[in-house]
């Protein structure tokens, strides 16, 4: 906390003691972090700037453990309901049953891990109810970039994320403001279609030979070739692609000089954040590819955006394409060859982005279903779940709070509830009865005007 400048990895920022990184020369005592970012981010001794070089997309949990361990931290109340132990009891049971065993949350040999252990144990009561409602086999605590910018809180710290395609990835963020430039690229980017005829799940050897012949004829200058990672339902494991190796060998057999091309695959670590291909003149994209929907859901959760699968695909391919010489801003002409299975509107969006500095919005609804997906994954009686949906349908802030696991207080009247069709809650007594049982467990609080 006395170092003026700290240089750390993305992963470590989220998995170590985040308040220790944020505070510089403490002016008030530094207590064990209690997960309250609204309180943390108004401290007078926070660092002036927090800079993220490239977007943190792989955010690991601060702590994660098997859900069965919750049994060690549970007890029954007078009515037989399973509830969370007090922090004092959690510490006692942790020391007796978990410490220094294979289930220990942290290695006890290092002081920093012992501090992290205390943070995790103190946060268990805060997360316990949502863990108990979840159908996941894991329980964990994760901190996100959006937590650094609590809504409605003025902070003196500047959170800057250097993301070249932020206008695509951080669509309509509620927490981050886009600082853009008038024109990102000064090159001409040509998009040219080539015949493909291959299917990932059933690759035809004859058609593969025909396709490699076609692209071999295109490689007359430095070229980046990008293909699927796996074919025919296979999985070569992380960091390896036999299909990419097969494609590279096929091009060599066609007489393409080795020094003229490089083959990589979609999803490889070199698809972004590298300058290794900046002297390459053209790129060949072999086969359409889409990121799983879960990836865009993670971005929405981490950054408070409306990013959908289309936005993230546009972001991914813009990052991929700018690995080649376009990134040098030399005013040259670069070529993007794409196979005919890419959709016309996708190529149109890419053309507009690179040549006209224009983002074409999605034509379909941008409404996220993250909040409904979270409710569906919880063990809540269907009638109560339906009432929560009714309360949230016309309240975007409530939907966002449910989807992002945040606290939210909703003010209602009895007439409002009755108009929604929630007729059984006709008194404050009944509101108070349902609140701690279900709504409070997902951090939603209802008050009567």
Can you describe what's shown?
This protein is 35% helix and 14% strand. The protein has 449 residues and is α/β, with parallel strands linked by helices. Helix 8 links the parallel strand 8 and strand 9 (261-265). The relative contact order is 0.10. Residues 431-436 have low confidence and may be disordered.
Write the layout of secondary structure elements.
Elements: H1 10-15, H2 18-22, H3 37-40, E1 49-53, E2 63-66, E3 74-76, E4 82-84, H4 87-97, H5 111-133, E5 138-141, E6 158-162, H6 166-169, E7 188-194, H7 205-218, E8 223-227, H8 242-253, E9 261-265, E10 282-285, H9 293-303, H10 309-321, E11 333-339, H11 344-356, H12 370-376, H13 382-392, H14 396-403, E12 408-412, H15 414-420, H16 428-437, E13 444-448
Helix pairs in contact: 4-5, 12-14
Helical stretch count?
A: 16
> Ends: how far apart?
45 Å
Largest sheet, spatial ordering of strands: 7-11-10-8-9
Could you spell the SSE succession in H and E letters?
HHHEEEEHHEEHEHEHEEHHEHHHHEHHE
- Which stretches are poorly predicted, pLDDT < 50 over at least 5 residues? 431-436
Shape: globular
Instruction: Report the strand count.
Output: 13
Residue-averaged pLDDT: 87
- Biggest sheet overview: 5 strands, parallel
Structural class: alpha/beta
Helix % is 25-40%
Radius of gyration: 26 Å
**DSSP strand (E) fraction?**
5-15%
């Amino acid at each position: 906390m006395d170092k003026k400048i700290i240089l750390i990895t993305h992963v470590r920022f989220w998995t170590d003691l985040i308040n220790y990184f944020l505070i510089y020369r403490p002016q008030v005592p530094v207590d064990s972090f209690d997960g309250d970012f609204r309180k943390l981010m108004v401290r007078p001794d926070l660092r002036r700037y927090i800079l993220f070089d490239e977007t943190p997309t792989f955010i690991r949990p601060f702590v994660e453990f098997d859900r069965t361990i919750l049994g060690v931290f549970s007890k029954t109340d007078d009515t037989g309901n399973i509830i969370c132990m007090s922090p004092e009891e959690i510490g006692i049971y942790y020391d007796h049953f978990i410490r220094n065993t294979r289930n220990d949350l942290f290695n006890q040999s290092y002081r920093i891990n012992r501090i992290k252990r205390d943070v995790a144990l103190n946060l268990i009561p805060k997360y316990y109810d949502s863990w108990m409602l979840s159908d996941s086999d894991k329980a964990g605590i994760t901190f996100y970039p959006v937590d650094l910018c609590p809504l409605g809180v003025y902070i003196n710290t500047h959170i800057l994320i250097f993301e070249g395609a932020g206008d695509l990835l951080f669509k309509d963020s509620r927490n981050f403001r886009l600082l853009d430039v008038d024109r990102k690229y000064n090159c001409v980017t040509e998009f040219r279609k080539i015949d493909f005829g291959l299917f990932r799940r059933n690759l035809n050897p004859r058609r593969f030979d025909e396709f490699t012949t076609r692209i071999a004829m295109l490689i007359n200058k430095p070229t980046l070739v990008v293909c699927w990672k796996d074919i025919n339902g296979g999985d070569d494991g992380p960091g390896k692609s036999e299909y990419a190796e097969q494609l590279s060998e096929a091009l060599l057999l066609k007489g393409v000089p080795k020094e003229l091309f490089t083959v990589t695959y979609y999803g490889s670590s070199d698809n972004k954040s590298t300058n290794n291909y900046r002297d390459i003149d053209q790129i060949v994209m072999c086969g359409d590819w889409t990121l799983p929907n879960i990836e865009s859901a993670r971005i929405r959760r981490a950054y408070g955006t409306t990013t959908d699968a289309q936005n993230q695909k546009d972001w991914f391919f813009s990052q991929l394409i700018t690995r080649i010489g376009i990134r040098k801003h030399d005013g040259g002409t670069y070529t993007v060859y794409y196979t005919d299975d890419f959709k016309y509107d996708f190529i149109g969006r890419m053309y507009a982005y690179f040549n006209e500095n224009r983002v074409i919005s999605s034509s379909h609804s941008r409404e996220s279903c993250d909040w409904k997906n979270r409710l569906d994954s919880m063990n809540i009686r269907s009638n109560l779940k339906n009432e929560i949906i009714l309360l949230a349908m016309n309240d975007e802030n409530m939907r966002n709070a449910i989807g992002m696991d945040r606290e939210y207080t909703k003010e209602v009247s009895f007439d409002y509830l009755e108009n929604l069709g929630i007729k059984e809650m006709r008194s404050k007594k009944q509101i108070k009865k349902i609140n701690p049982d279900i709504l409070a467990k997902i951090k939603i609080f209802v008050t009567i005007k």
